[in-house]
Amino acid sequence: MLPKMENYLNIKSNKKIKRFHITYNSVKSGDTSGIPILREFLFDKDKSVRWIAIDLVSQLDCDAVAPLLKEVYESGDDRTREGLMLFMHDARNQSMRALLMRGMQDKNREVAITAAKSLGGKSAILVARKILNEAVNALPEVPYVVKVDERGEEEYQDSTNGLTLLLADAIETLGKLGDTESIPMLKTLWKKFKRREHYGSMYDDVIAIALGRLGDNSGLPILRDILRKSGVDDTAWLLSGGLMEAIEKLGDTESIPALKRIWKSVKKDKFHGEKLGMDKEVNQAIQRLETIINE
Questions:
Q1: What's the number of CA atoms in the CB half-sphere (13 Å) around residue 241?
Q2: Number of helical (H) and strand (E) elements in the chain, helices listed first
Q3: Taking a C-beta distance cutoff of 8 angstroms, is the pair 50, 44 a contact?
Q4: Are residues 173 and 114 in contact, defined by beta-carbon separation less than 8 angstroms?
Q5: pLDDT at 34 over 70
Q6: What is d(CA 174, CA 171) in angstroms, rounded to the nearest whole number?
Q7: How many CB atoms lie within 10 A of CB 231?
Q8: Where along the chain do its domains lie?
Q9: Rounded mean pLDDT of the chain?
Q10: Residues near 182 by Cβ (< 8 Å), separated by ≥ 6?
Q11: Tell me, what's the pLDDT at 68?
């Protein structure tokens, strides 16, 4: 798992961080004399400093820092390379995008899919398809091991080395990027999992959403069931995870009552409604579906 920005907050007053920001802003304004100093921060012994530097230097998106980030990629461990690929998601500079294309060929699948998603377009689709084919064949028959903790209680631990999550990520990518050519592949994959005792419905939600986003209604009953069971706390996921998009893509007017129930709950909630304005987004989705009825 990659570090979250909130983990940086406790070191913002650090003199080293202040020095980094001064140099960073100078380079950002066009003064390349600070490039060697940025390199020092990218390889600092303090991992918190390193992560801040990698994040912000990646956003400079220019030829001047591309060699530094290439060096970070070549010398970094899997986690560092994955983080770098993630932070470069807005890269437009040719040298920076070349590094993302290199990351797509990384031996670590998580680094490869992260690079592909940052690069976007056809490149991401091709990598996602490749991961789908490879990961399915590489998954063990049982995706978890049962261990007994100190209290004598059983706990389930992933035995796939992250492949189950990576596969879900690849499926989501194909749906998000509108790869309709992958519909047969996703349906075949779904059938395979249904036949495997220890997987069963593990991928039902993510495949149903991906298919819905692609205009295929094979998973519509699952999407409706998710909506039926969802409440205020699920709203962010419903909006960002693609389910609302899938419902709209399919023009499923039968989901309107469930959406109205969610909308009313969100509207009453101060955080999700007043502060984040999610009630407006849900209401807009309802209105778009209602136009289908009125057509």
A1: 15
A2: 16, 2
A3: yes
A4: no
A5: yes
A6: 5
A7: 11
A8: 1-119
A9: 85
A10: 125, 128, 129, 132, 174, 214
A11: 94
Q: Specify the pTM.
A: 0.68
CA atoms within 13 A on the CB side of 29: 8
In order, the DSSP letters of 87-148 are HTTT--SHHHHHHHHHHTT-SSHHHHHHHHHHH-HHHHHHHHHHHHHHHHHHS-SS-EEEEE
Q: What is the CATH number of domain 1-119?
A: 1.25.10.10
Buried b (16+ CB within 10 A) or exposed e, 195-212: eeeebeeebbbbbbbbbb
Average pLDDT (17-29) is 89
CA–CA separation, 162 vs 182, rounded Å? 23
From the CB of residue 146, how many other CB atoms can be counted at a distance below 10 Å?
10
Instruction: List, for residues 160-195, the tens digit of each pLDDT value.
Output: 666 777 788 889 889 988 999 999 989 988 888 877
> Do the Cβ atoms of 251 and 292 come closer than 8 Å?
yes
Residue type for 59, please?
Q
Structure tokens at 59: 């956003």
Spatial CA neighbour of 39 closest among 63, 67, 3 = 67
